[in-house]
Design brief:
The chain is an alpha/beta fold. The protein is 57% helix and 7% strand. The strands form 5 sheets. Strands 8-9-10-7-11 form a 5-stranded parallel beta sheet, sandwiched between helices.
Length: 927
């Protein structure tokens, strides 16, 4: 049940006052001695909370907390006796505790740092502050401590001391300030060791002091130790080191310094390391079921970093796990509002996931089970990359894009790259090739898993993969977390600051891979998927690498690598034809190469055996069911919802290279909105490509595959709808653009679904230009599949556009298909019109003899159809041809007959010849 009360930490954050950190301060005035540490260890061994132990000892919880944190240096002996009884200590253990109490920290402060910069600047002699009042000395001292153990350049010192520009005497002033800093450091010295000092270097000045003389040195040492323990893995010891490291912080680095020093690159890096330590501390606390111990630290950090989403996500989970669900939800609401107001963005996926877990009550309760014991040896680093599949060619640009994962420039370095593409395009091969080539960059090993997103085997759950990876990283198999979120937290902990490559192959969707992406920036993740994984790109910062088919040269090289360069060179033309037939698909080319090797066949013979759709059937390796192109396509097709499967099947029927959303709606008898949604699903699955904006097509082999899936009745109905859609719009465009060449007596086709309206000539012409290949293909397909009436009517609507646009090749193909359709339909006038178009095309191509023969055939067909206008045009074209050949008698005879038909009022107008030629076309009388 969600508690409606507000936590004290929450109240501090809302009021703008930074709460006192829940990690006791270690350092000047508050170093935890061995007594407090040993007492805490004994209490944890007994499995008691501070509240329970304090109650049994008869003291307050606050008193016990202060003792453990070193705030009480000399507890009373009776208090110690009560605590010993409450914790069940033996007499020897009590003696050990009393000895630690007597030892305590050195009163002279030996071993304590003398220079403190993790908070306001402070110089100390033991526990006594040494005043540093001069602003110039505070700047110089702060800079030297920040850069330690590296020197500060003369330019850096000048820029920090005089942000607005140095005076002319700045060099001598720097010498003066350095001398004054040396004297201050001598005051901070102790009797048993040399004091820090400042020495000259070739480029500037260096603070010469042991690392433990500066609080930053203590912090760095403890953080490094914690990172080593994470890799061990030893989360308990790592947590202790992180806790001690964070105690050194009293606020932002050099909190009281000028902005020029607080914003120095070295200060930014130090603050980032603090954030890193806080994130690791919170992750480990949640893993060890100690969320309440992370809450004070996280409150402190979110006040310092009010827009850091990683800190807020962990605070939300830590509060909820500590029983403060209402406070956790308030943290999310405030962060969401702040991000919207200040940056105009929504919370990241990490924050949204934490919020959702609170709402669903999906967080581990605050309890402390016995932690896993540290293993003596974590074993060898994982090296799970599978073997390479023979030689690898091409993909140089894609290899360079993947190299962003190992870029030496942190600003350019990627953390996650998703390689996406169609089935069989070579995603896994690319990922494996790159991973093997760059494995030296990942000294802590490589993890690999086939997630079975598209597989006949069950898809792997993230929890299963996490268990597999945790075992590979050295976690004891019998102590793996059963909860997926806990396992993910341990996985992130073990990979913190490791340089590990994780290859997640064949992912289903973004949700499957999100728990498997570590937070460590030293790790790199390569994901392969047939899905676009747009969610990872939008919410998780992944880079998307879309893999397409091989270009002709790359395809040729792949075939040569499979069957041998000499065989390809001997049949160069046949080899390139095979690459085209395979559509550049790497899987298809490898299978074709394997078949050529197995049969010892010539390339030209193999290609001749596999025309058209039959090629898909032949792209299989005998005895290996997985090595078929169809099997790869099947996995993607079966993963689609039923409506998307139907859309995919019907798209295989389209007559041209692509289809618009409205055309797809007509094909599937759906609305444009429904068609757009289904096309988006198919595009996301890489079964359909958006060839141009709003135009969708299929790879040749996928098209063959889709076509063979469609049933006969389903295909017939879909083709009828699409052909009617094309006819309606071609007729409307022709009536608008060429009204004189259309037959007003012919009825307008009925409006189909998803019908467009051309508002002007420009829209009609633009539609015809965009659909020209599809319209020509529709005539050919309709003529060959039994839709004869649609074929010749669509051809007649298209001819004015094709002829005036000088598309002679398309015009000839359309006219020939139209002639066959008209013959099959028994339409003599349509036959005559088609023959006239064919003759005009040959005349335009300077095939005069062929043109003359076809005009004669058209004349005879026009007479049979009693079509006077067609006869007139044929006679004039024949007369003109004879005139050009010098046969004046024949020319005069045909032209006279044309004039006679015209005078009788049964022919075309006297200037009908103005439309002659392929530009004007025969439609002057052929409509």
């Amino acid at each position: 049940m969600i508690d409606g009360s507000r936590s004290s930490g929450e109240g501090d954050a809302m009021s703008g006052r930074a709460p006192a950190t829940g990690v006791p301060q270690e350092g000047p005035g508050g170093e935890r001695g061995p007594f407090g540490l040993r007492l805490r260890a004994f209490r944890r061994r007994a499995g008691l909370s501070q509240e329970t132990a304090a109650a049994r000892a008869g003291i307050s919880t606050r008193a016990l907390r202060d003792i453990e944190r070193g705030r009480v240096q000399r507890p009373q002996s009776r208090t110690l006796q009560r605590l010993a009884e409450a914790l069940g200590l033996s007499s020897g253990e009590l003696g050990e505790l009393l000895a630690a109490d007597r030892t305590g920290p050195s009163p002279r402060g030996a071993g304590l740092p003398r220079l403190l910069i993790l908070g306001p600047l402070s110089l100390q002699r033991g526990r006594t502050p040494v005043p540093v009042t001069s602003p110039m000395l505070r700047r110089l001292l702060g800079l030297l401590a920040l850069k330690h153990p590296e020197p500060s350049t003369q330019q850096e010192i000048t820029d920090v001391l005089w942000p607005s520009g140095p005076p002319s005497s700045h060099q001598s002033l720097v010498h003066t300030y350095v001398s004054q800093v040396r004297r201050l450091l001598e005051q901070g010295g102790v009797r048993n060791g040399p004091p820090p000092t400042v020495v000259r270097t070739p480029t500037g000045y260096l603070l010469e002091a042991p690392r433990n003389q500066i609080d930053l040195g203590h912090f760095d040492e403890l953080l490094d130790q914690a990172e080593r323990l994470h890799r061990a893995p030893d989360p308990v010891s790592a947590y202790e080191s992180l806790t001690r490291a964070l105690r050194w912080w009293r606020g932002p680095v050099l909190a009281d310094a000028d902005p020029v020093l607080r914003q120095h690159p070295a200060a930014v890096v130090v603050n980032e390391r603090r954030v890193k330590a806080a994130l690791l501390h919170a992750d480990t606390a949640l893993l060890l079921r100690r969320p309440e111990e992370a809450v004070p630290v996280l409150w402190d950090m979110v006040n310092t970093e009010p827009l850091h989403e990683g800190l807020h996500a962990r605070l939300i989970l830590a509060l909820a796990s500590s029983g403060e669900q209402a406070a956790a939800l308030n943290v999310f609401n405030r962060l969401r509002d702040r991000l919207d107001e200040e940056l105009g963005i929504a919370p990241s996926a990490e924050v949204r996931d934490a919020h959702l877990r609170v709402l669903r009550q999906q967080f581990p309760p605050a309890r402390r089970p016995a932690p896993p014991e540290r293993t003596a040896s974590a074993g060898p680093f994982p090296a799970q990359l599978p073997a390479m599949a023979g030689s690898y060619v091409g993909r140089r640009r894609q290899m360079r894009e993947l190299d962003a994962l190992v870029s030496p420039d942190p600003a350019a370095r990627a953390h996650v790259v998703a390689v996406v593409g169609a089935p069989g395009v070579g995603k896994t091969a690319l990922a494996k090739h790159w991973a093997h080539a760059r494995r030296a960059h990942f000294e802590d090993g490589q993890l690999f898993v086939d997630l079975r997103g598209h597989s006949p085997l069950p898809t792997l759950r993230p929890a299963d993969v996490l268990a597999q990876f945790l075992r590979a990283l050295g976690a004891p198999p019998d102590q793996l977390p059963t909860d997926e979120d806990e396992a993910a937290a341990l996985y992130r902990t073990l990979l913190a600051d490791r340089q590990t490559l994780i290859v997640l192959d064949n992912a289903r969707d973004a949700e499957q891979v999100r728990p498997l992406i570590p937070g460590a920036r030293g790790c790199a993740v390569v994901i392969t998927s047939r899905s676009r994984l747009a969610g990872l790109v939008a919410s998780d910062g992944a880079r998307q690498l879309v893999l397409d088919v091989l270009d002709p040269d790359e395809g040729r090289r792949l075939l040569a690598a499979t069957i041998g360069e000499s065989r390809v060179a001997a049949e160069e033309e046949a080899a390139r034809r095979l690459v085209r037939v395979c559509g550049g698909l790497p899987l298809a080319l490898r299978i074709a190469g394997a078949n050529l090797l197995a049969r010892d066949a010539r390339i030209v013979d193999y290609s001749a055996e596999s025309p058209g759709d039959d090629m898909l059937s032949r792209l299989r390796v005998e005895g290996d069911r997985r090595s078929t192109v169809r099997a790869a396509f099947d996995l993607s097709y079966r993963a689609l919802p039923a409506t998307a499967r139907r859309m995919f099947r019907l798209l295989g029927l389209m007559p041209g290279p692509d289809l618009t959303v409205d055309g797809a709606a007509a094909l599937t008898d759906s609305t444009s909105a429904e068609a757009a949604g289904l096309l988006a699903v198919l595009t996301d699955a890489h079964l359909v490509r958006e060839r141009a904006a709003g135009r969708f097509g299929l790879h040749d082999l996928l098209r063959s595959y889709a076509r063979e899936l469609a049933g006969r009745e389903e295909a017939h109905a879909a083709r009828q709808r699409l052909f009617d859609w094309y006819l309606y719009h071609a007729d409307a465009a022709a009536r608008l653009l060429h009204p004189a060449e259309t037959d007003p007596a012919a009825g307008t086709p009925p409006a189909p679904s998803a019908a467009l309206v051309f508002s002007d000539h420009g829209e009609a012409a633009e539609w015809l230009d965009a659909e020209r290949e599809n319209l020509a293909g529709a005539v050919l397909q309709a003529s060959g599949s039994g839709f004869t009436a649609v074929a010749w009517r669509l051809a007649e609507s298209l001819h004015p556009y094709l002829s005036t646009g000088m598309y002679t090749g398309d015009c000839l193909k359309v006219a020939t298909a139209s002639l066959f359709a008209a013959v099959a339909d028994g339409e003599p006038r349509a036959q005559a019109a088609a023959q006239l178009r064919r003759a005009e095309c040959h005349r335009a191509l300077a095939n005069d003899a062929q043109a003359l023969e076809l005009f004669g055939s058209a004349l005879e067909l026009a007479r049979q159809a009693d079509w006077t206008e067609g006869q007139v045009l044929a006679l004039r074209r024949i007369g003109a041809a004879h005139q050009e050949n010098g046969a004046e008698h024949l020319a005069c005879e045909h032209l006279s007959r044309a004039r006679e038909l015209t005078r009788c009022g049964r022919g075309a107008e006297p200037d009908a010849d103005a439309g002659a030629g392929v530009e004007g076309g025969p439609e002057a009388g052929a409509s």
